Amino acid sequence: MNVTLSEVSPRDGLQPIKQFVPTETKIALVRALHAAGIRRMEVGSFVSPKAIPQMADTGEVLQAAKQLDGLECTVLVPNRRGFDAAIAAGADRLGLFMSLTEGHNQANLNRSRQASFDDLSSIVRDAPPGQKIRFNLSCTFHCPFEGVVDEAEALSWVERVAALNPEMEISLCDTTGNAAPDQVRRLMRQAIEHFGNRFAYHGHDTYGLGLANMAAAWEAGCRVFDAGSGGIGGCPYAPGATGNTAMEDAVWMFHRMGVETGVNWQRLLEAADLAAGIAGAMPGGRVRGVPGARAAA
Amino acid sequence: MNVTLSEVSPRDGLQPIKQFVPTETKIALVRALHAAGIRRMEVGSFVSPKAIPQMADTGEVLQAAKQLDGLECTVLVPNRRGFDAAIAAGADRLGLFMSLTEGHNQANLNRSRQASFDDLSSIVRDAPPGQKIRFNLSCTFHCPFEGVVDEAEALSWVERVAALNPEMEISLCDTTGNAAPDQVRRLMRQAIEHFGNRFAYHGHDTYGLGLANMAAAWEAGCRVFDAGSGGIGGCPYAPGATGNTAMEDAVWMFHRMGVETGVNWQRLLEAADLAAGIAGAMPGGRVRGVPGARAAA
């Protein structure tokens, strides 16, 4: 493959749904995505079930996902307790996260960036040798509280994170969907130039810029992308807020660019339809509704 | 302004509507777009009213549009008769068009590319000195009959067109919405490098790639873009076929990129709502439905 696509609907797409999605539905989605050729997936989060009941069954979903051939399973790890649980459960990759902006880190994680960074640093340090880690930097480009992020400020945090571990994957995340293509291209290019080609891009399609930003990150050299089948996600309390850039939109674009994804188009549409049909899910994305795209081989 | 946005909904967006859109509605749309700060517009087509009844009142719409301060009015000119009519009516810019692929030119214009090129060449030659001309090359990237267009083939036609007149603007048109960002970037970059920075990009959003392709053309140096307010257009017989990339989506992206458009955001939304609400129009685009975008200044 020329690109690594990491599917995030089982975690990022389902998490906002209020009613509990049955574990068997989650596992069916994971299996459908794997059957479509997806080989990396964020399957859940080892977070407190009190804080996010929807993720209470991450252990079970992970065990089912680990049965699937060649699937690399990521779980989110918010803290030391989640870290211990993820290691014990045999997660292939740990997904750490903090916000690049103080305002969003405080609102989302209820602590300072420095406190988050210190804790995550110790987790990175204590991870077993060879353990794969993804460090997600939320609001790398735009923050709902602070607006457009200064690029030098963003790069300085990227530098701190990069110094923790030379092997670690780092994701530049457009959490609000309000990044701009030129901004993504510049920052991604500088990040790769200074800290090696180990960056991922995670974007949302809130303002219709999901693919434009993804294409910009690709052009800057990025080769790992998050996307969510069915484009599910968003926030039930913010009409118009959308989920991740739809995996099927991303795959359509990459296939048109001649990039090998390893994904079977028709099977991906089946998985995306499955995701979009989950009770309470808020679907997004574009090509799923375009007859000319649905009919394609 | 750092970019020239050419509004195409009054022509490209209204043309597919079966029932006749009243002339006063067309003029109201043109005025609303001008009030939003749009300063270039494709207002109609001097085509046979038998062939396209919707454009029968282009003369009247053009006269009303010419009253508006600083508005450059383009009319499409399919042939010598349309050329004479456009010159007599005082159109600011003539919009010539042919397809880059033989299959689409035959299907759309019922003649060979060579025959179209020869006729348009004579029109370019006979245009009054200083007359502004836009030469539109349909299906520059992808053809519904021939698939992806070979880039060397595309460039060879661009070269022939460029040689007709060194001042003439040339538009590379993604007629099917199936161009890919890397393809747009490469071709636009080469066109500008070899034939000067006088290219425009015209795209459709059929597969959700409208903004991605526009951003790619911008990055390649293109500074003139077509877009249609309300994203209206498409084909009533092809569900899912969509119109031009929405002007409001384009403006949202350019404003996020810090590019001055001269457009007033809230007034543009008003004009886009007006376009989208025209009886029979098939609206498209994204940000018009996003509360966070609608509320922006």
Structural overview:
- 2 copies of one chain form a homodimer.
- With 297 residues, the first copy, chain A, is an alpha/beta fold.
- Chain A has one domain: Alpha-Beta Barrel (TIM Barrel), CATH 3.20.20.
- The first copy, chain A, is built from 12 helices and 10 strands.
- In chain A, the strands form 2 sheets. The first copy, chain A, has an 8-stranded parallel β-barrel with strand order 1-2-3-4-5-8-9-10, surrounded by 8 helices. A two-stranded antiparallel ribbon of chain A has the order 6-7.
- In chain A, strand 3, helix 4 and strand 4 form a beta-alpha-beta unit.
- The longest helix of chain A has 15 residues.
- Chain A is globular.
- At the A-B interface, helix 8, helix 9, helix 10 and helix 12 of A face helix 8, helix 9, helix 10 and helix 12 of B.
Features:
homodimer, 297 residues, alpha/beta, TIM Barrel, eight-stranded parallel barrel, two-stranded antiparallel sheet, 10 strands, 16% strand, globular, Aldolase_TIM (chains A, B), metal-binding (chains A, B), HMGL (chains A, B), PYR_CT (chains A, B)
